What we know:
By secondary structure, the protein is an alpha+beta fold.
Amino acid sequence: MLIEQSYAALPPVLFAKATLMSVATPKLVIANDALAGELGLPREWLHSDAALEMLAGNAPAAHGEPLAMAYAGHQFGGFNPSLGDGRAMLFGDVEIGDGTRRELHLKGTGRTTYSRGADGRATLSAMLREYIISEAMHGLGLPTTRSLAVVETGERVWRQRPEQGAVLTRVAKSHVRVGTFQYLAARGETAAIAALVAHEIARHMSGVVGPAGFLDEVIARQARLIAGWMSFGFIHGVMNTDNMQIAGETIDYGPCAFMDGFDPQKVFSSIDENGRYAYDKQPMIGLWNLTRLAECLLPLLANEREAAIKIAEECLQRFMPQFEAEFERRMLTKLGISDLEQAGLITKTLQQMANARADFTQFFTALTRQVAGREVELLPFFISEVAMMEWRAEWDALRGQDALALMAAHNPIYIARNHRVEAALTAVGEGNLLPMHELLIGLQKPFEERTELTSLELAPSAQEEVLQTFCGT
Length: 473
Ligand code: AMP
Ligand code: MG
């Protein structure tokens, strides 16, 4: 595997050299053979001692220094001009089979220039949580950073109590975020902004031309991504500008969650007291973040500020229609309706789901099974029989011949339910990896029904319900 460090060719303001801490007793906890295949890495290598040393951050990078990337960010609305990789580092990038490149990022490898007093480490449970949920996202067909492996370091990490330390190898098209542009803009580094735009276009935006084309493309990708999340009941939980990636992949699996019972105002994050990142706020927050990106690009969009603002506004105005079109297309498909003029039914469906706190995933699975001619009870998903009959009459009238195929391909049976993720992580803590592997089997092919995985379909009981999730540190 030829690992390069392409990012080092960018202006030095964008990164700092990083030193990998060495880990005494690394142990491979989980490795992603399928992803290794996509990267062109042999399975045997992934499970070798040489790989373990690299994935633990022990191997000196033969190709050059690892780098910590600098970025800024609006965190819950407040701007911090100096964030950056505080506990992760860019190990390098590799070319894969189709000629595109992927970056390898090691998370939990020790302090960097940007650690700001924190320890630079990561816990095993937070890294496995990222592994599991990023696999779920990929299984659903949505763009995401991937997880190649999690290695236990054998060292203690102190949080509220001592925890197992770990290193996650994260794979992404690029780790450049909205916050990376903000870092440069806050320092007046206009030439570096232009270089970064060119870098991102060359890396993963073939066919895109110029700063306005770039902005348009980032906007379109975020509109599609957020619509995709919402069609599966996903709440990102911490949509700070440093957690919005330019390539349009889901990044930063901190306090995120897939909803059980549908509540449009649902928030999971323990620190999101005002509901800034609630389920139904995600498109608005996405647009807010993209507006911050557009501000950074103004000097490149036109010589005159007024003209630049006009161009930026035209681009930003395309976000909501693109989000809505994609959300409607996805939701209608989930209902087995191919006529895109029927979006009125989506509002009614979501409204009645909210009234009944219908389980987001089970509801659509039940509809799919109904269309397949299986015996299912729909009444539990409605507040009354009348409500169900009225809704059904409308739904029945709109479905086409191809309904079942559409529904089966868009309604997952298995999602990463919080209580199952937590139970799997607890079992790992007790030395039992089986529940995690079983969960992953369902999540990697979420549209394929398996009788042995029926329990993964279940919503949490009142005792099992996880009400809050915490930032993954
Ligand atoms: P996050 O909440 O994961 O998006 O992280 C926000 C910022 O805090 C990023 O700059 C991280 O690198 C940094 N950070 C989070 N946890 C740690 C840690 N344990 N050590 C150093 N930096 C951290
Ligand atoms: Mg982050």
